Amino acid sequence: MAAHPGGLTAVEPSVRTRTGARTGPGAPTVSVRGLIRGFGPKGVLNGVDLDIAPGEFVALLGPSGCGKSTLLRALAGLDHDVKGSGVINVPDRVSVVFQDSRLLPWDTVLGNVTLGLRDHDADTKARRALAEVGLAGREKSWPHELSGGEQQRVALARSLVREPQLLLADEPFGALDALTRIKMHGLLRELVSAHRPAVLLVTHDVDEAIALSDRIVVLDSGLVATVRTVAPEIGSAVDAAGHEALRRDLLTALGVDVNAASH
Amino acid sequence: MAAHPGGLTAVEPSVRTRTGARTGPGAPTVSVRGLIRGFGPKGVLNGVDLDIAPGEFVALLGPSGCGKSTLLRALAGLDHDVKGSGVINVPDRVSVVFQDSRLLPWDTVLGNVTLGLRDHDADTKARRALAEVGLAGREKSWPHELSGGEQQRVALARSLVREPQLLLADEPFGALDALTRIKMHGLLRELVSAHRPAVLLVTHDVDEAIALSDRIVVLDSGLVATVRTVAPEIGSAVDAAGHEALRRDLLTALGVDVNAASH
Amino acid sequence: MSAPTVERPAVAPHQDPALAGRDDVRPTGRRLGPGRRRRLAWLLGPSALLLLWTAASATGLLDPRILSEPWTVVATAGELIADGRLQENLAISAQRAGLGLFFGIVVGALLALVSGLSRAGEAFIDGPVQIKRAIPGLALIPLLILWFGIDETMKVLTITLGVFVPIYLQTHAGLRGIDLRYVELAQTVGLGRAGFIRKVVLPGALPGFFLGLRFAVTGAWVSLVVVEQINSTSGIGYMMELARTYGQTNIIVLGLAVYGILGLLSDGIVRLIERKALSWQRTLAG
Amino acid sequence: MSAPTVERPAVAPHQDPALAGRDDVRPTGRRLGPGRRRRLAWLLGPSALLLLWTAASATGLLDPRILSEPWTVVATAGELIADGRLQENLAISAQRAGLGLFFGIVVGALLALVSGLSRAGEAFIDGPVQIKRAIPGLALIPLLILWFGIDETMKVLTITLGVFVPIYLQTHAGLRGIDLRYVELAQTVGLGRAGFIRKVVLPGALPGFFLGLRFAVTGAWVSLVVVEQINSTSGIGYMMELARTYGQTNIIVLGLAVYGILGLLSDGIVRLIERKALSWQRTLAG
Amino acid sequence: GGSATAGNAQPTQATSPLATTVPAGTTITVGDPSVKVALELSGLIKELDFKVEFANISGGPQTTEAFRANALDVGSVADIPPIHATWTGLDVRIIASVFRQDAVNHPLYELGIAPGAGISSLQDLRGKKIAYSPGQAQGALVLRILEKAGLGQDDVKLVELPSTGDVYSTALASKQVDAAPIGGVQIKRYLSKYKADGASTLRHGLRDDPGHLYSPAKVLDDPAKAAALAAYVEVWGKAKRWIEDHPEEWLEGYYVKDQGLSREDGQYLIDAAGKADLPLSWTEAIERHQKTIDLLAKEQKKPELVAADLYDTRYETIAGTAFAAAGKAGAA
Ligand SMILES: Nc1ncnc2c1ncn2[C@@H]1O[C@H](COP(=O)(O)OP(=O)(O)OP(=O)(O)O)[C@@H](O)[C@H]1O
Ligand SMILES: Nc1ncnc2c1ncn2[C@@H]1O[C@H](COP(=O)(O)OP(=O)(O)OP(=O)(O)O)[C@@H](O)[C@H]1O
Ligand SMILES: [Mg+2]
Ligand SMILES: [Mg+2]
After folding, report:
1. Which helix (H) or strand (E) holds B34?
2. In whole angstroms, how far apart are CA B236 and each of B211, B231, E270?
3. Structure pTM?
4. Between C231 and which of A259, C150, C194, E36 could a Cys-Cys bridge form, CB atoms 3.0 to 4.6 Å apart?
5. CA-CA distance, E236 to E320, in Å (whole number)?
6. Neighbours of chain C (3+ CB pairs under 8 A)
């Protein structure tokens, strides 16, 4: 995990723990304090503080290997055996989209989507979700019969049919082409506006982060290095100038020399 | 696989089989004629023709599930049992970066990179490649101890230490952040300029395709739907207007309504 | 740089009949792994064995007093089938083996679940099972007679005891071999204990279970040799024991052949079910 | 919306000693799967068994005429060790079992490789192995005596024949269970046949092989009961057979205990090696 | 049906006289574990001036298996195995026999009676469950006992059980059978363990004492081996005498050291065996053997055999003469 010479230094704790601006006051859905995690001699998270308000959509950016997945796994309660300390508060119903699409190889696409659902109309719901992600008619396929992007969409459908209080999504659109990705953004937005879960979305795409989230958090050297609130007019690209400024800001925080070649 | 209302219709065969402009004449490294592949009742590739000249860098775009990986697997000789017909000519030494990073779970990172290498200095080479992808010091790690992006970089390092005549890369940068991705682009460019393999790169990122390739091929409905040559001045973004025009062109070919919201 | 391609027919032309006659030239790297399954190929080995036996008998290499000739065995089989003895004995044996197999599978799988899914269960179950496994079955017979008599109960129980061990061991190993990623998934989608077992543990342990089953079916048949010596007047184990007593080599060899055929058949059936049940697997098995 | 968290100590504080004392509150979903391995927990089951035996003997529930009391067995062991009989017999038996095990492993693994990696090999090897497996070992002994005499060769061979079956079956299944994705990888990086076997097949089949080994080690010990009845004057199998003839219950039970201990030990050793060799696995086993 | 191979060997007696010297290079393999110990203890083994290999093989099934495999030249068994061997198409001859003096009172087997079975005489066996192992000496004994009691197979319930190890004692103790023939130390053990529960044993009053050395006819047709076997039989007779005359050494050297028995158990066995009898004539023995054959043939539906055909009369006097001579020499 290379240190980023151009990265911002850690901001003040008061900033770091600020809850989402657009959701109004109230207890945060997620609160993380002094989260420390490490594997062997290496520290990965060195004291992360993070609050997510109910209904708030937070995007998590950061270089490869900086600990984004580690943070998500900690929030999902999947790091029983990982060394570290810190205080984590999360709601009961947490739904996770893993970085790998993680479909049970021995279950059909439909079975993978309905996994763990107790509703009576689980099947109907799942079929609808599959149709929404463009996989109508593939219900009976085995996961290995799907393309990479299709597998990722099944994983997305699995999270769409749930009504979590917190949605943790680890690069859920990584294997999708531009058009499919836009469609999936739409689906995610619908889900969010329907059930208003708190969302923590890991992505590598700065534009995606700006378009979807209320707030963007950049992780660096195991700390929350940058936090940016995304004004609604920027997110929907009405304020194109503000959009570009925020984009450059974030890219700089990620260590990209924005003034060099176009990418 | 949804049909794309905004997609271009299939272009003339003469256009489809055109070889790379910048590499000069000579027998193509890869030649594909009338490639048909299908799974069960479904046709995936419906008659693909494609030539790649020696040293030419071709980017392959297309919606999720359109058959990009199927084409790559056919070129790699990995579809023994898939129904279909067509004529494929490929060179002897083909190197593949799979869509999943596909590391042997029972071998270390170093072992995975040197897999199949017969050189005396395989280890040295592999260590160098690992350092280049930012994984110096992780040689003895198990694959499961790596983050998603790190695994992808190991797979990339595995292809860097080889000297193939043809490099087939299936979304090798999907899980990487902007900065790491730029670095990896640089590495790939170095490899290409050093050994001049023919390259077929699958990507979802139009900008990436423009930046890296000599020619861009869009696959749709199992056919080569669009072919665009990338002029050097566009690729390096000296001609920003040409760049933007090509970008819009390709996005349109991929079905994205470029005049709507910014993504 | 010339392409190492070989002209070969399409595995099967794509559905469109217009395309059926097209060229199909594919790059053919040496295919690692065993290649496609061939139907009936499994008959080759046993046929070769039969041929060898016939040849050795015909040339006198094999003393017929040790191993009867195949034709004698066939004749004997004809006689025994004609007077109904073979069928009767087989039916009785099949019933015993079936019962023992059934209980063995149930017990083995249940124990494996308990021991595989909780450290406490493992602590108490696994050790004793290993000990049971290490103690020769013959040595247990006096104890079994003492506790369960010499009737059918004891016979079925002995088979059960033999059968449950591989089922347990394999299911346990299969279960413990389930990828942790799926366990995490189960946790995040809120699967309960039962759902976890049904959706993740059982399907994940299935490949192991089937291997255990393959040991178990042949194990059940083989156990008959021992249990049908005890207070039996029927069954192929008894038939063979009697033949040994009276030195009826032809019947002994017939019995062995029957065992061989039963073993091949049961194993084949298990493998067939396995292939159907595990059709989701994409492995070297093809 | 209140958080279902439980205050619990860090699994182990992170390296920085300044952080050691910090709070550690984690969301605790019910943990599916067995949880962390506990050292020495495997002793619980056998200890419980021992306790049960002792208790049942002490209270008279267990007739000492059937199953000697633990203390009698310990006393017997003391006597036999004092006059050297136990060690001598064990040493001889261990040598036989070891040799048989060695050859069985080699033969089983080789056959599994040949049969697993080529359809031709499978056609000729797999069927006969299944037949061999289906035929009761006792019934083969006359043939083995005929072909290999009654000396050590025949004993080691009988053990080998018993041992190679689980090794073969498990290695074969493990090998066939290797994910096709790794086979494809091997092909694209240009691994040759040998490299493929060394880098993909063997490591991939290793989990199966180890399970086979667990069957094999106990199988080798158990086979002694049979082979050491034939022209032996030493070995624990012979010792037990003699004791059975003379009704020396205490020696029989000692023999069983020795078998149990040997089985537990061998199995434990295999598992330990397995754990080390398969440390790359991330499975439910933990 | 199914008896195709049984009884089709038409025995013919070897007639060529035995050579008096054993040709150099002759080797015989002997399955006679206890006598081997006696030969070693007594030093008689030195009298065997040709190569003798001892195999620890005894009992009918094992010796016949080894005969077939040409792994054994002579075996030590009771009177049933030669019969069954012949029935299975293996041509064998008895070359030495040992009996017990006062055999009826020194039986090898007694009838173990389960606690509470209420059997005090052979007639009480009617309607009872009796353990029966058709191929073994115990099985034949059960048939003979029934015949003596005037009972048929249908008058009792024969429970087929292999008589390996202590299975019979266990079956008796757990009352799975009412009566079962048990022999040797098992008698002592059974009584000492279960007498308190009402277990008992019943003397059957029959002779069950024959012990034979027997060889495949094929071996006896080989003049060199036949001569070597004659030499062995002679030493064997001497060994029997030595055992008789040295009970203390025998107890210590064989039962305690070699077999791992306690002194009491060993002494019990020596006492139970009584005195050995190696007659110079086999006539009586052949008569008794014929009766056993007749009974087995009838009860187990096997072809008739002529008992005399099972004996190689060239050896008739060798063992008995040696036994008697050794006794005189010892006394002198
Ligand atoms: N089980 C493990 N053992 C050792 N190191 C680990 C383990 N899991 C993760 N790591 C290391 O911890 C660091 C953070 O990993 P994490 O998966 O959180 O990265 P990430 O931010 O999600 O990266 P990416 O964008 O590439 O997915 C990485 O350097 C990784 O190598
Ligand atoms: N083994 C298979 N059995 C059945 N259908 C398959 C199989 N493999 C692929 N397909 C189908 O073929 C189509 C093309 O798959 P392919 O993997 O080539 O897509 P792709 O273009 O690589 O997509 P992505 O961008 O999502 O990776 C998909 O619809 C997929 O579901
Ligand atoms: Mg990650
Ligand atoms: Mg793909």
Report:
1. strand B30-39
2. 6, 9, 107
3. 0.87
4. C150
5. 10
6. A, B, D, E
| Cα A162 to Cα A116: distance, rounded to the nearest angstrom | 10
The ligand 2 atom nearest the CA atom of B1: 29
CATH of domain C69-277: 1.10.3720.10
CA A76 to CA A169: how far, in whole Å? Answer: 11
Torsion angle, alpha carbons of B130, B135, B141, B147, to 10: -120
Is residue D51 exposed (0-12), middle (13-18) or buried (19+ Cβ within 10 Å)? Answer: exposed
State the pLDDT at residue A257: 81
E154-159: which pairs have CB atoms within 8 A and are 24 or more residues apart? E155/E125, E155/E126, E155/E127, E156/E125, E156/E126, E156/E127, E156/E128, E156/E129, E156/E130, E157/E127, E157/E128, E157/E129, E157/E130, E158/E130, E158/E132, E159/C150, E159/C231, E159/E129, E159/E130, E159/E131, E159/E132
Domain-wise residue ranges, chain C: 69-277
Using a CB-CB distance cutoff of 8 angstroms, which residues of chain A are in contact with residue B204? Answer: 175-178, 181
For ligand 4, the distance from its centroid to the CA atom of residue D82, given in whole angstroms, is: 72
Determine the Cα–Cα distance for residues D232 and D236; give it in Å rounded to an integer: 10
How many C-beta atoms lie closer than 10 Å to residue A163's C-beta? 14
Percentage of the residues of chain B whose pLDDT score is greater than 90: 64
The span from the CA of E231 to the CA of E319, in Å, is 10
Q: What confidence tier does D8 reach under pLDDT thresholds 50, 70, 90? A: very low
Residue C150: CB atoms within 10 A of its CB come to: 25
**Is the pLDDT at E149 greater than 70, yes or no?**
yes
Whether residue C191 contacts residue C201, with contact meaning beta carbons closer than 8 Å, is answered with: no
Judge whether residue E290 has pLDDT over 60. Answer: yes
Helix, strand, or coil here: B167? strand
ipTM above 0.95, yes or no: no
- Nearest in space to D283 (alpha carbons), one of D228, D213, D222, D207: D207
* Whether the predicted pLDDT of E192 surpasses 50: yes
Distance CA C65, CA C86 (A): 22
Rg, C-alpha atoms of chain E? 20
The reply to whether residue B148 touches residue A185, judged by beta carbons under 8 angstroms, is no
Strand partners, B85: B36
Say how many C-beta atoms besides its own lie within 10 A of residue D114's C-beta.
Answer: 16
C141 compared with C20, residue with greater pLDDT: C141
Q: From atom 7 of ligand 2, which residue's Cα is the shortest distance away? A: A145
Who has greater pLDDT, E222 or B234?
E222
Q: Measured between CB atoms, which of E64, E160, E174 is closest to C231?
A: E160
Residues A197-251 pLDDT 10s:
999 999 999 999 999 999 999 999 889 999 999 988 877 766 778 888 999 999 9
Position B22 scores a pLDDT of: 35
Per-residue pLDDT tens over the stretch E30-82 = 998 889 999 999 988 888 888 999 988 877 778 888 888 888 999 999 888 89
Conformational region of residue E69, where left means phi above 0, alpha means psi within -120 to 50, and beta covers everything else: alpha
Q: How far is CA E272 from CA D34, D249, E263, in A?
A: 61, 21, 14
Domains of chain B (ranges, CATH numbers): 104-163 (1.20.1580.10)
The residue whose CB lies within 8 Å of the most ligand 1 atoms, and thus the one to mutate among A35, A36, A68, is: A68
Please choose, from the candidates A98, E58, A80, E190, the residue with its C-alpha nearest in 3D space to the C-alpha of residue C188: A98
Length of chain A: 263
The token pair at B210 is 């423009």
Sorted by sequence, the CB contacts under 8 Å of residue B210 that are 6+ apart come out as B59, B216, B230, B234, B235, B243, B246, B247, B250
**Residues C232/C238/C242/C247 CA torsion (nearest 10 deg):** -160
Contacts of B111 in chain D (CB under 8 A): 199
